[in-house]
Structure formats: structure tokens, C-alpha cells
Amino acid sequence: MGTVLRDPRVLVVAALSLIGACAPPKPPTPPSSPDAPPLAQVEPASTTTSPTTTDPSPTTEAPVEPQAVAPEPEALAAIAGAYRYRGGKASVRKSIDGVVDDMNVMVRGIARKRLIAANTVPKRIAIDQVGDEVTVRIDGRAYVATLGGAAKRVKDPNGEVSRMRYELRDGALYQIFRADQGDRTNVFTAREGGGLAMAVRIHSRQLPADVRYRLSFAESG
């Protein structure tokens, strides 16, 4: 029996099917109503095939695992508000290039294009808390869930399903998306001197390494 060779250019389709998980999905219905400190590990999804994953953290420091705390009214007062993009865009391309350069040469171009498209830098971010309900708006797209509550099933514009939840850890808001092919974590923290920091980590078994980058935002006038 002969051996069947698989064309890497075909494999890239499956390898990049995680893009839906990389870009925050759009909720089914709109509601009415990310310079950051070392980041913590996020527990892996409870499957036998998923590897252990960690949230964004500086490569020069060991990650620390803070405990998620019970939400309180106004728990996000330090980071609630409206913000506009300030800097960090170069870190997105640098991280993507570093990951893609370790991939098969035949799929690098497609992988780079897909990852760049899935990691558009937000122009504006707004964070609001009413009771235990948190709303994060990224360029006008709203994500609503209970702080510290169960994950919420959402779909991205391509119909891919993921589950999103919010956690509060040492004053930082973790927005965690998980899907079959990978996960994305956005960590929002207050910047010293004012403004907001957003640290992003994208993980998938089909990528040779995680995509990690940091963005900064100034308060909107």
C-alpha cells in the first residue's frame, strides 16, 4: 500500500481555522445598556486533548497565579471608562512574525495574512460595570457577561462558536474566549498615570507558539 503525502498548503486551512477564536466573537444580540503588569496563568479547558495554556505574561518574568475574587459593586472602577488607542501596534506584527517564521515556509504567507486580519488594533475601548454585569466595547462591538460568572456562549461573524467569561484578578479584568481550536485572553489593567493597558494572548495547538502583544490606550476626551 502506498503512502499518501499531505500537501502543507492544504493543511494550512485546518491550521488556521482558529481565526474565529482569535478575533473576539460578536454576541448574538447587542446589549442595551488592553504596558501591563505580569499576567497570570489561565486554567486550561477541561478536555483531554487541549494542552495547558497560560495568559499573556512577560517572557522575562515567571507568571504568577492570582486568585479570582468575588466581584463587588464598582469593582472595576479603576479601569472603567472610555479610551482611545495610544500605542503598541508594532508589537502585534512583531509577535505574529515571530510565530509565523517557525511555520512551514509553504504556509507562512497565508498564516501571516490570516493572523494580521484577526488582530486588528482597536481604535476605541470602553469598559462599564453595572452591579455584577460587565460590558466591554471594542470599536463599538459590545461583549456582556457576569463578572466571575459562567462562560457565555457566543458566535463570531463567521458563525464559529466560542465561550466567553470575565474574571477579576488583582484589579485586572480578564476577558477569556475559548473555542475548539484555540483560545484568546484579553487582560485590561489601569496604566500608571492614567489610561488603559490591554495585553493579548492567542493560543492554538495549530500554532508553534502563542501570539502575545500589548497595547496602550489613553482616556478619551
Question: What would you say this structure looks like, in words?
Answer:
The protein has 221 residues and is an alpha+beta fold. Helix content is 16%, strand content 33%. The protein has helices at 8-15, 19-22, 89-100, 108-118, and strands spanning 81-87, 124-130, 133-138, 141-146, 152-155, 161-169, 172-179, 182-190, 196-203, 211-219. The termini are far apart. Residues 1-6, 8-15, 17-22 and 25-67 have low confidence and may be disordered. Strands 4-3-2-1-10-9-8-7-6-5 form a ten-stranded antiparallel sheet. The longest helix is centred in the middle third of the chain and has 12 residues, at 89-100. Helix 3 runs antiparallel to helix 4 (108-118). It has one domain (8-219): Calycin beta-barrel core domain (Lipocalin).
Short description:
The chain has 221 residues and is α+β, with helices and mostly antiparallel strands.
What characteristics describe this protein?
221 residues; Lipocalin; alpha+beta; ten-stranded antiparallel beta sheet; 4 helices
Write the layout of secondary structure elements.
Elements lengths: L7 H8 L3 H4 L58 E7 L1 H12 L7 H11 L5 E7 L2 E6 L2 E6 L5 E4 L5 E9 L2 E8 L2 E9 L5 E8 L7 E9 L2
Antiparallel strand pairs: 1-2, 1-10, 2-3, 3-4, 5-6, 6-7, 7-8, 8-9, 9-10
At the fourth level of CATH, the homologous superfamily is Calycin beta-barrel core domain
Structure annotation, total helices:
4
Calculate the mean pLDDT score and round it.
76
Query: Widest sheet: strand order?
Result: 4-3-2-1-10-9-8-7-6-5
Q: Quickly count the domains.
A: 1
- Largest beta-sheet details: 10 strands, antiparallel
CATH C-level class: Mainly Beta
Residue windows where pLDDT falls under 50 for at least 5 positions: 1-6, 8-15, 17-22, 25-67
Taken as a percent bin, the fraction of beta residues is 25-35%
Distance between the first and last residues' Cα: 70 Å
Q: What is the helical fraction, as a range of percent?
A: 10-25%
Helices and strands, in N-to-C order?
A: HHEHHEEEEEEEEE
The assigned structural class equals alpha+beta
